[in-house]
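The instructor's notes for this session suggest beginning with a concrete chain rather than abstract definitions. Hand out the sequence below and ask the class to guess, before any prediction is shown, which regions might be ordered.
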Amino acid sequence: MTLVAEQSASSEPVCSWEAYLKLGLSHKNNKTVLNKRRHFGPLTLQRPFYPEEDGTCHLYILHPPGGIVGGDSLNLELICNENTSTLITTPGASKFYQSNGFTAWQSQDLTVKENACLEWLPQETILFDGARVDSTTKIQLERQALFMGWEIVSFGRPVCNEEFTTGLFKQSFEIWRSGEPLLIDKITIQDRAEVFSSLWGLQAQPVMGLLTIVNDDPHALREATNIIQGMIEDVSRLSVTVMEDVLVCRCLDTNSMAIRNTFIRIWKAIRFVSIHKQPCEPRIWAT
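After discussion, reveal the predicted structure:
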């Protein structure tokens, strides 16, 4: 771990963490293996797990400090090379604490090459009241790559009756294929913005979730859509739509666990039709 001390308190935080993790995966001996691992600061991962017969690699991204404050910077770069199959999750929620006046930065650049498959399934992000966060996730796919992923964001801590009344949250979630944009989803919320209560926004629900699937097989996306639509009766504020090769599912709720459980149910129900794999939950989800 590396602690960065800044001397100019007027322009920079007194102390901040800088963290960088670069991972590369390749296909070898009928399984996906980690062939590149470089990290700087408090961002790393557990050893790879192989709970599936097809050699899919399960990785758990670790951030030992547990919380992120203003001035911190977390950067993840992942390259899934040809024919690899990777599932990535986290052992716990990402917590952004009340800001000291500075912004916390998070960037995640995920590259999935030809005939590779990536499942990006982190646990939720929790924004404490007063947090200032700028978060970017960019997925770059080659032509025959498959992707399934989600992001869950909790504004405040509903279980503690803590609302997100002050602060700033900027999020960009982008999916590109062969240099062309498939989905660009951006949101900026500052303080108690109108978007929290409006019908076109969060509808007074403090937690939002986005689940996406990229597959150029229209039959696969159509079947996945039908399965999700069959679940809408059991879940309030859940929608699903398909835009060309991308399925987009959105969910709003009063707590992050409800959305997480809904997304896990959807993932288990559609994993085979979407990316041709039987459900196999990461062991960390059971702890």
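Then share the key points. The first strand starts at residue 3 and ends at 5. Residues 3-214 form one domain.
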